Amino acid sequence: MKLLLLAGAALATSGAASPPPAMDVNAIATQRFGNDAPWYRDRVPFFESADPTIDAVYYYRWQLFRAHQRDLGEAGYISTEFLDDVDWQRHPYASLNDATGFHLGEGRWLNDRRFAADYIDFMYAGGGNDRHFTDYMADSVWGRFLVDGDRADALRHLPVMNHIYRLWDDKYDFDKGLYFVEPLLDATEYTVSSIDASGGKDGFRGGDAFRPSINAYMFANARALSRMAAMAGDQQLAADYAARADALRQRVLTDLWSEPLTHFIDRHQSRNNAHVRYWQPIRNRELVGYLPWMVDLVPDDAKYAQAWAHLLDPASLAGKAGMRTVEASYEHYMRQYRYLGKDPECQWNGPVWPYQTTQILHAMANLLDHYKDTGPVTRSTYMRLLRQYAALHFQGTRLDLEEDYHPETGEPIVGLARSHHYFHSGFNDLILTGLVGIRPRADDRLEVNPLLPVAGDSQALDWFRAQDVPYHGHRIAVTWDADGRHYRRGKGLSIEVDGREVARRETLGRMTVPITRAAPPPIARPINHAVQLVRGRYPIGSASSNTDPDNVHDAIDGRTWFFPELPNGWSSAPSPADQYYAIDLGRPVALARAELAFFADGKGFAVPQSYRLQAWIDGDWHDIAAPKGRPVANGVADVRWTKRAVSKVRLRFTQPHGKATRLAEFKLFEE
What we know:
Helix content is about 25%, strand content about 20%. Helix 4 (about 100-105) runs parallel beside helix 6 (about 135-150).
């Protein structure tokens, strides 16, 4: 099928004005996000398709992303894994580095670049990458550059990235030329290597192994560092990391490929162990064996492509509801070892994990996009498994992604309070790079190759559109309309850049068009002065009722979400009607604006009937703002006043009779 490149000034279509955008983003934002729509409207790329389930999950995942942006005040934003605190996080920030690749993969598609930029700064300049877990963070920084095209941002932390990479020598076996790790520190406790190293008795700790995961990550990080060093003009560093990546690739292909299992597998690294031998291959296939494709480590060869048959085999890794993390024939498959009280805890000996499901779908997208030999995998396979993954996000009709799932029923296994709305995976990155097929590049080209099967296939989509997608300083849109009847803008696949159509073809397939790199939009960084990271330190909150320290702290902890499953914020008592929440900043700060986020559930919690903001001036409280009407529920009220230096600010409000107020977050800004 011939690709039609449409010429004209500034990539216009024959000089004629383009039709208006096909999607009403204001209406979609209001429908999907309600009163919180203003946060999303100018930030997220919009998407719709002929599959309402995929659409619902796409917008839910942006809600999940928004909920996990923790405001650290002057240190900016980070992405969290759990909505609330867990013991093993990096205190007091609540950061963990194992899912950073997913967080940056999702965040790179926002039109507001602050969240990914702040997070990268935190990880490399703020000590966030403490190597608690394995990661492919440097590769994710490169992946962000492929979308936004900002060279300066990509290179900002190159010296620290180089330093952190070298620190991993403590997990490098110089004799074997491979990295090893304890599965727990690979964020995958209770794997074949750790369970077998315990003699089948446990598997939470121990079981160090040369794993496909850490070696794929370190290969990807080395390749990214080589490319960034070359971009920075350091040819020696670039050559060094290119050589490291090549050597690691050869060792993975030679030593972690199992001919008997036709799969990439672990080899035990444990020495002086009564149950396993050093360098002994593990005895069963695991889902982690596909990670080398996620980073394009594997050559295009039928020898390796045959491994994908195991993913589709019900006797191996294919569960009815999702991808098993270890094949069903393993002796200790789905044996529950660990509990929190009577509740099952996390294990990777069979359960479906969104974490690895995301990774394998990225690997499969690479296979379908640029490998000639895809083994048994087709585009129909990809869409079927993507839909299977989307279904895991639902519990009945309610969207709530948890930690892990039973591979046959799709029901959550670890259903603890911490598990709700878990950000340990990706989805929207899969939609934009896989289903829509935007393949980000370092050069001045825009490449699109949707991974949809042809019409008539049970997994085909008749139409989709992604709009307001940031790319190299522009906003792009990709539309597929099989017969042209849905959007009435023409039949086939089309690309728009900044609102003008630049290419079209009648059938699904690859399109590549030139795109002139433009400066990305500047990042605005208003600082929230009302974040209490450490309890007992300024700023300090106080309240008129329910003064438990944790309850009071939660209104100024830098977290904002409105999910009912996990309470967030300060919750007042239902009486008396007049209540307050005050913040003592500990010093005068010039302030002019507040953001107030109130939760309401139509039951016990309602927004105030009236409210006003006060400041401590000359030894007494004085009104500085008295908005008319009630604040929005499950959204953010923006309140402004004439800037002045104050040390204390108080919210006074009157709540409806018999209703409590939940102040999800209270923020204070200079502008």
